[in-house]
Write a structure and sequence with these properties.
Structural class: alpha+beta
Length: 81
């Protein structure tokens, strides 16, 4: 199974992700959890997926992370552990 890709993202996607991370409602603790999860090299399922960190969710499709949603915003796809 392929891994979620965090490097060499298309520039528009990379810029979008960084813009969303600047949301003031995303906590530093949850960003640290994202860092730790990223370093675990999670598998990339086929189709849409998301991972809930509490103050935000990261959503993706296949090997690419696509966006961040704030708490309370519904996510679609397979929830990752």
């Amino acid at each position: 199974m392929p891994k979620i890709q965090w490097t060499d993202l298309p520039p528009a996607l990379r810029d979008h992700l960084f813009d969303r991370l600047r949301e003031p409602k995303i906590t530093a603790e949850d960003l640290y959890q994202l860092k730790t999860w990223r370093e675990s090299e999670p598998d990339a399922p086929d189709g849409p997926w998301y991972k809930d960190f509490g103050s935000f969710k990261i959503c993706g499709e296949g090997k690419y992370p696509k966006t961040f949603l704030l708490r309370g915003q519904p996510a679609k796809g397979q929830e990752l552990d």
